[in-house]
Design brief:
Blueprint (H helix, E strand, L loop, with lengths): L4 E9 L5 H10 L5 E3 L6 E11 L3 H9 L6 E13 L2 E10 L2 H12 L14 E7 L4 H14 L3 E7 L1 E8 L6 E9 L2
Antiparallel strand pairs: 1-3, 1-8, 2-6, 4-5, 4-7, 5-6, 8-9
Length: 185
């Protein structure tokens, strides 16, 4: 039997009405050598599973169906960076709500399937740009823009569904496909 690996993750998708606000923020970052994330696919990753044998997808979906977690409202605000302002690799939007508890519930549901637990503390965020490099003479300008955006607020979202997603990497950017949806109770 041939093993087919599928790159997968568990996420919450942003609502379509956030697209315009994400585009506005990204336009402010246009003068830098950044790889902007398509606003249509911006999401909050709860758990990255990596390359998974396609035969395990049904098992993962059943495990996620066992999550007992209430839906909740969350506020999307603040622009931040990973790992630190002096060395930026990712620019993100922050999210405040019960995401840490939801992340823990996803981790617990998948624990019997032996997925590695996240080693770092969980920070709910949505990547909006990746940074390859910023010339030294442009770094100050980028940091100023990021500082100006640090208190931006996109609005409130209702988190009531999480999705198991497939990610296909292409030169134009990733293509995401929803494999399974879980309604929060």
């Amino acid at each position: 039997m041939v093993m087919v690996l599928i790159r997968t993750f568990v996420a919450f998708d942003f609502p379509p009405e956030f697209k315009e606000k994400i585009v506005e923020i990204q336009l402010k970052l246009n003068d830098f050598n950044l790889k902007l994330v398509d606003p249509d696919i911006v999401h909050i990753t709860l758990k990255f599973l990596g390359d998974v044998d396609e035969h395990r997808i049904e098992q993962i979906a059943r495990a996620l169906d066992g999550i007992v977690s209430p839906s909740f409202d969350a506020v999307v605000r603040n622009v931040g960076v990973f790992p630190k302002p002096q060395y930026i690799k990712v620019i993100w939007l922050g999210a405040e709500g019960s995401f840490a508890q939801l992340h823990d519930n996803v981790e617990s549901a998948l624990d019997p399937l032996r997925f590695k637990k996240d080693k770092h503390g969980y920070t709910a965020h949505a990547t909006i740009a990746r940074v390859k490099s910023v010339p030294t003479n442009r770094k100050g300008a980028l940091l100023k823009i990021l500082d100006d955006l640090k208190d931006v607020e996109l609005g409130t979202i209702h988190v009531d569904t999480i999705k198991l997603k497939k990610s296909t990497l292409t030169p134009e950017g990733p293509i995401y496909e929803t494999l399974h949806k879980v309604r929060l109770k």
